[in-house]
Amino acid sequence: MTDILDRTKIYIDGQWVDSDGTGRIEVVNPATEEVVAVVAEGVASDVDRAVAAAKQAFPAWSALSGTSRAAYLEKVSSLANERADELTAVVSQDLGMPAHLARVIQVGMPLKNIAAYASLAGNYDFDDREIGNALVVREPIGVVGAITPWNYPLRQVVLKVFAALAAGCTVVLKPTEVAPLVTYALVDIVDEAGLPPGVLNVVSGYGPVVGEAIAAHPDVDMVSFTGSTRAGKRVSVVAAETVKKVALELGGKSANIILDDADLTAAVTEGVGKCFLNSGQTCTALTRMLVPADRLPEATAIAEQVARAYTVGLPDDPSSKLGPLVSGTQQARVKSYIDKGVEEGAELVLDGRETEFSTGYFVGPTVFTNVAPEMTIAREEIFGPVLSIIGYRDEDDAVRIANASDYGLSGGVWSADPARAEAVARRMRTGQVYVNGGAFNTDAPFGGYKQSGIGREAGVFGLEEFLEIKTILR
Hints:
The protein is an alpha/beta fold. It is built from 15 helices and 23 strands.
């Protein structure tokens, strides 16, 4: 049995303090099913205290020059980079992603984002436009409520919190209660860096209590939420009562269109990787692979062979490519979707419901083929290592199938002709498209169309989400 870490304090006005609530939330290691920590089950009055601290800190923080704010963020960036190994160990245990992958993805990417926002804080021109006698200026929106998910627990905190801080806002953060420990490690770093009291406040707890209190609070000027579409709709409803800005990054069911002239082996191989990243617990996962109908058997054979190489293993095993899912609830959810795919008549080529592990929330690589676009596994977000391969008649049919979704977060296109691929990418109703396996860009705007959300994160577009526009007539 492991020692249980006590992280039951919440962070308000620059200090770790007791919650007003007495409840506790257990944090479970998804590989061992052991309780590794307990955190506070926050209550609405904790949010009231945190918002009051953020409101009090806002005038002084927003009045600082961008260069001065940048200096604080640069200190955080420096300390976080020094502790990258520690952060990796924490998030790998918390989430279950193999450590060698977590170092690059779960820690490496957000460290780049912190550095980028430190740079933007110092270089962004907040008074950048004149229109006749009007000076157009951008000002921080105020107190920001940030509500973050478990699948990329550090990066999603960074994209919200550090963009808001760079813009001159103060923040009340509710981190995920499922994998919260890396957030605490980051807040320890922020505290050591000497961020002024009240600029960042953290209240742990459940969404229906702490999240709703943040969204409803009259002194919160904006809510930025990442999570399920269902929960995002609720945040919007609650926030509407006080007419505040809402930014949402929600679900996805992204299509990967492999055109008839593409290198099928390269396209399928890379597509499987983009479906299985983080054990499929990725909102941008390319879970629908669209291939020419006459090449469906060939594509399926390639996908099965590639998927079998995605080794299921413990997070500390360097050979592991798929760690456990984050929780027993998530494991049961993913297995139920595999059951549903079989029930509805999809052909199960590779079944991940059973693995060699009797302990831990593991699901192995799973591949379906001959999937009809109307099937549940082709329409709903599964959030596990489950690939659906769908045949199409021609290019127009592929685009139609790709766009026939409630979501529009990501997508992919493969073609031997880059211009053709880009033309198809432009027809896809989605916020991000990988062309021929293009690399992810941590500074590019990230967000979705339709029920995948509202607004953008990362880079300058992410910064501007937290700014108001003021016109000064002279």
